[in-house]
Write a structure and sequence with these properties.
The protein is α/β, with parallel strands linked by helices and about 550 residues long. Helix content is about 40%, strand content about 15%.
């Protein structure tokens, strides 16, 4: 109503006609997807621009729409989804127009087909369809969940009248039936429960089976009907699964908006699903942990910035969390990750590999598990196994970190007691001496032996600084980073680095050493257990973006 009061329908029609006259009429979404199906990826990528979302809050509020869209286009996105809803997604119609103009200009310069532009919003009126045309859209999202049957038919007809084939979104089998009855040709499946925001990646496969078996609808290459998966996708495995069930396209938003290098993220996602080695670490793929979290708001800040792991400390510490506090943090992290249960580790199976290769494979599995869905780590130090198991189970953490002198026999017992829990073992090193010679070859050989023995039973290893012989973190002191570099480059052991890291120096570490992961506690605090939001987000983003200019 507000938009209609500002711009009449007659004025909007003139604006739509003027835009089409200058930049060309909308292109067919179905044709665009069909062209992508014939290319090496075998399906279309709809890359999305959204600054925020109802379930995640701010994702990357400072990004510029046309610049991000251009990055998507250069590596092969076939569709550019632009959120134009201002309240929850912080989008605008101006974003849509700028994306269309910038990417069309680029496509003409390089002699390529331009990506189709999708207006994504809560469309309930023909006026909004005309707005989409006036601001450069080739297609628009129609959500069955918010439309009556008659209105859905009317909006599909309106879109086609203006040269657009709409993307019709369904969540349930009943909505699929409504969409088909209304004549939808491009159907997108939202894997997210719109009430709880939890994800069910199997939903698209269920819809695909229903299309084939119940409705006898052919879809895919050379077919009139196209099926797209619309949410929760972030890995090459996700994309491979979509290919296997016959999807013609996928839509990816949050994973690309958070990526330090969206182009590299697209190429990694759209390529083969194998070969995701723990080392060397690719740009933006460093595992980022924020430890010593006792407040929900601090966890939300860290994961909002892109942290993969949130640490809650059960050991005696200035940052010690109660089971209740840890559970509150774990619940917040689960909500953010759109899940309701812990993420289980894979079985301990070396498949004939030596200890280091097996550790590297489990590190890779850990990174995949928390790449999009952050996890919670409970930190323990020389505590009885019964206490550890009780607190880990009651709080709902996904992983445990052993920060003391726990030996291999303790690790074996832990694995038997909590078989589905990820395990990280800390090994302590002395503080760095600026003018010192560094560790001797004998000391390095002993470190390698310890890392290898622990690595046989762990999912990741962490090097931290011990001060005055005490096994404790949060000291603010750093060890010699070259030791971590030696472990990774010469021994093949992925290392998470802790000790002395801050938002000011993490980029230096990541650029120089390229560690598997980084961990911080005191370096982003105002006081023990109270994180500084600016430092926390700066640390996470500094780590994720550090190697872009260094490579």
């Amino acid at each position: 109503a507000e938009a209609k009061a500002k711009v009449s329908i007659e004025e909007l029609r003139k604006a739509a006609a003027a835009f089409s006259a200058e930049f060309g009429a909308p292109q067919s979404l179905a044709d665009c997807i069909g062209a992508a199906e014939a290319l090496p990826w075998g399906l279309a990528l709809a890359a999305e621009f959204k600054r925020a979302s109802p379930s995640k809050g701010d994702i990357n509020a400072d990004l510029v729409a046309d610049e991000q869209a251009l990055e998507y286009s250069k590596v092969g996105a076939s569709v550019l989804s632009v959120l134009t809803e201002p309240k929850w997604f912080k989008g605008s119609l101006d974003d849509l127009r700028s994306v269309r103009r910038r990417t069309q200009s680029w496509a003409q310069e390089v002699g390529k087909r331009r990506p189709a532009c999708l207006r994504k919003d809560f469309l309930v009126d023909e006026y909004q369809v005309l707005e989409a045309v006036a601001y450069g859209a080739d297609t628009a999202l129609l959500m069955v969940s918010i439309l009556s049957r008659s209105k859905l038919r009317a909006l599909i007809a309106c879109c086609r009248e203006h040269g657009m084939e709409p993307l019709v979104e369904v969540v349930t089998m009943k909505e699929l039936e409504v969409a088909l009855d209304a004549g939808a040709r491009v159907i997108g499946v939202n894997n997210r429960n719109l009430h709880t925001f939890e994800l069910d990646k199997g939903r698209t496969a269920e819809v695909a089976a229903e299309l084939r078996n119940r409705f006898k609808v052919a879809f895919g290459p050379n077919e009139a009907t196209k099926l797209l998966a619309l949410s929760g996708l972030s890995t090459a495995e996700d994309v491979t699964h979509c290919r296997e069930i016959g999807c013609s396209g996928i839509l990816v938003g949050e994973a690309l908006m958070r990526a330090a290098d969206p182009g590299a993220a697209i190429l990694a996602m759209m390529g083969p699903s194998d070969g995701d080695e723990a080392l060397p670490v690719s740009p933006g793929d460093v595992l980022v942990k924020v430890c010593g979290v006792v407040r929900e708001e601090d966890a939300s800040c860290a994961i909002g910035a892109g942290a993969n792991l949130i640490g809650v400390i059960f050991a005696k510490s200035k940052r010690q969390a109660s089971v209740e506090q840890a559970k509150t943090v774990a619940d917040a992290v689960r909500r953010f990750g759109e899940r309701s249960a812990s993420i289980s580790s894979p079985p301990m199976d070396r498949n004939g590999e030596d200890a280091v290769k097996a550790l590297a494979a489990r590190c890779s599995a850990l990174r995949k598990a928390c790449r999009r869905t952050p996890m919670v780590v409970g930190v323990f130090m020389d505590q009885p196994l019964d206490e550890l198991a009780e607190k880990a189970t009651a709080s709902g953490v996904d992983a445990v970190q052993l920060h003391g002198g726990e030996d291999v026999s303790f690790l074996k017992e832990l694995r038997q007691r909590l078989p589905g829990t990820w395990v990280i073992k800390v090994v302590h090193l002395p503080p760095r001496e600026e003018a010192g010679p560094g560790p001797s070859e004998v000391e390095l050989a002993e470190l390698k032996r310890r890392l290898t023995s622990y690595g046989e039973l762990c999912d990741a290893l962490l090097l931290d600084t011990a001060v005055k012989g005490a096994h404790s973190g949060g000291t603010g002191a750093a060890f010699d980073w070259k030791v971590a570099q030696r472990a990774q480059e010469d021994w093949g052991v992925p290392i998470i680095v802790a000790g002395g890291l801050t938002d000011a120096n993490v980029a230096e570490l990541v650029s120089a050493v390229r560690p598997f992961g980084v961990d911080v506690a005191s370096g982003v605090e105002d006081s023990p257990g109270v994180k500084n939001a600016g430092k926390t987000s700066g640390y996470v983003r500094g780590a994720k973006r550090a190697r872009i200019s260094a490579e």
